Amino acid sequence: MKIELNKNKDFWAGLMLIIIGAGAMFLARDYRFGSALNMGPGFFPSVLGGILFAFGIITMIVGLRSGEKIQGNLSIRAIILLPLSLVLFGILIERVGFVPALTALILVAAAAGRQFKIAEVLPLTALLIVVSIAMFIWGIGLPYSLIKGF
Amino acid sequence: MELYHNLIFGFSVMFSLSNMAYCFIGVLGGTLIGVLPGIGPLPTIAMLLPLTFHVPPVTALILLAGIFYGAAYGGSTTSILVNLPGETSSVVTCIDGYQMALKGRAGPALAIAAVGSFFAGTVGTMIIAAFGPPIAEMALEFGSPEYFSLMLLGLVTAAVLVRGSIVKSLAMMVLGLLFGVVGADVNTGVKRFCFDFFELADGVGFATVAIGVFALSEIISNLSDPETREILVTKVTHLYPTWQDMKQSIAPILRGTVLGAFFGALPGTGQSIASFSSYMMELKLAKDPSRFGQGAIEGVAGPESANNAASQCAFIPTLTLGIPGSATMALILGALTIQGITPGPTVMIEQPALFWGLIASMWVGNLMLVVLNLPLIGIWVKLLKVPYRLLFPAIMVFSSIGIYSMNNLSFDVYLVAIFGILGITLRLLEFSPVPLMLGLVLGPMLEENLRRSLYISDGDPTIFITKPLSLAFIVGTALILIVMATPAVSKQRDKIMK
Fold first, then answer.
1. Tens-place pLDDT, residues B270-327
2. Which residue of chain A is at minimal alpha-carbon distance from B186?
3. Which of A18, B100, B227, B285 has its CA 20 to 30 A from that of B128?
4. HSE (CB half, 13 Å, CA atoms) of B244?
5. Nearest by Cα to B81 from B51, B101, B109
6. What is each CA distance from B281 to B46, B273, B275, B292, in whole angstroms?
């Protein structure tokens, strides 16, 4: 009997839990476990890691028996570009300022969609930046420089 | 008499210019975003959450509560007008609400939903005011063992009532608890799971996780969906329900309110179950059940009232016990902790202005919703037509500024990216992120109470079953697990959750 692992939903779900559980137990070795009377910082995470590991095994067995497949779709474009836009925002806001950071964020994020029309995205970028400045810098009074050096 | 004084006090807190203004902003903003297609209440609250950290605690809570009702109301508007439920609890409203809209009766459906919600909200507010203090008083007697067992009960109940596999949602709860461990240990100062990042010493912010797992992963998921759904907005011609509509709705509104209040107050159950059981009840009681699914107004009035009563009463365990029953409540509880308030029964005694002010704001907020939203329905209908490709960049902007502004750390923004990727992975593997959120918020308190209990008992774990109340909670937890694991029940559960 050949078991199809590719796209087996609960196999991967179980594997993920097993890895996280084992990882937590492994890392928690560095923290004192202690006794029940005087629990160390390692007690709670170790126990949780163990439980997660056990749940992982159960889920994996369920997956192997049912063979249910992963159903949803995943846009590779979105899963790369959206986190990337956040990273750019984080880098730029500290080094270059609020406006460049937002510009990068909006342009890269908008590109994650399926229909990217520059004629639509540029006015949107301008609008969102103006609204953000009005709300956050003038309204709430967040102390960020719009563009560093100005 | 005391209740009366407390309520007067609450309204005096509420009727300050800034609190009224924030309640208004919250309700309006919540509805606005709740109406926008593809953004449910949970991502809405997650996204706006960091903004509340810049105002005083009472105001923050009033703002959040306003967003909460507004978003829920916006969700029912989209269910009725375009058949798009913003959240699971308004799925039921879609059934008859959209049918009414197709028959040109969108106006009455929306009006009845608003009136029913307002009535249920008013009753819910009174229930919190009446039952909150005695419950908190009882909870004041709780020691660490009772608290530990109660939290366990709350977490497990919430986890098993989530759609999908029970083992997987329990696993998410444990994962949430594990994320809660990150940071410096309270007792010893040992930095756990920090990987040498000083930014993690205070733990993983729950707002960061919420935005990543709910808002960002939802955007990724929406953009991954290959079908471009053309939204067909039905026309709203006349708004006012007929006398006949009103007469048909009164009993369902009353029944829905009672059901909703009951389910809302139980930790873990909440809105979806409330609105669903109200619908089933109306269906059973109807003289002519065949009208259901064809635009029966009872099918809108009952569930919408139940939904709102439940969302109102969900504040009871959150405020009096410090135990949130849903992900939204977990976010509100987390917002309290960020404000430096330890959630639990002491809130009512130490922060009476917060508790009673919030209760007054609930009522005012519900009133604002009715007064504002019905006339503004034309604007909401226009908003429904805004294409998603213009919306999601805006969500990204507000989320990232909000998160960055919390600690002025770029690291937090990077964490959102990581949790977004985790969130979409969980979605694909069909894990519910809700128990994760609850676990994250309750994790530190759970560990603290566990340690303290065992310290008191000299390391004897039987302390959890020798204290009568604690034993009751543990037995309750065990019963729920056993019942839910029974094949017959779990089949029934899967059917309901569908």
1. 677 788 888 888 888 877 778 887 878 888 888 889 888 888 888 888 888 888 878 8
2. A41
3. B285
4. 2
5. B101
6. 33, 12, 10, 12
CB contact under 8 A, B400 and A86: yes
Which runs of consecutive H residues, i.e. helices, occur in B55-165? 57-82, 91-102, 106-140, 144-160
How many C-alpha atoms does B368 have within 13 Å on its Cβ side?
23
B268: closest CA among B145, B154, B179, B186?
Answer: B154
B66-75, B120-129, B146-155, B176-185: lowest mean pLDDT where? B66-75
Q: Which residues sit opposite B183 in a β-bridge?
A: B192
Q: Does B459 touch chain A (CB under 8 A)?
A: yes
pLDDT at A1 over 60: no
Handedness of CA B441, B444, B445, B447 (dihedral sign): positive
In sequence order, the 6+-apart residues with CB closer than 8 A to the CB of A69 are A7, A8, A9
Question: Which residue blocks in B163-270 are alpha helix, DSSP H?
Answer: 166-181, 206-210, 217-224, 243-265
Q: Do the interacting molecules here have an ipTM over 0.90? A: yes
Cα(first)–Cα(last) distance of chain B, in Å? 46
Range A12-41 average pLDDT: 88
Residues of B in contact with A92 (CB under 8 A): none
CA-nearest of B73, B59, B87, B61 to B29 is B73
Domain ranges across chain B: 2-143+206-418
| pLDDT of residue B62 exceeding 60 | yes
**Which chain B residues contact residue A114 at CB under 8 A?**
223, 228, 389
What does the mean pLDDT of chain A come to?
Answer: 88
Tell me the C-alpha to C-alpha distance, in Å, between residue A12 and each of A80, A148, B425, B434. 21, 46, 10, 20
**Which residues does chain B have within 8 Å of residue A43's beta carbon, measured at their own beta carbons?**
451
**Domains in chain A: boundaries:** 9-66, 76-140
Are B171 and A52 in contact by the 8 Å Cβ rule? The answer is yes
| Residue A79 forms contact with B (CB below 8 Å) | yes
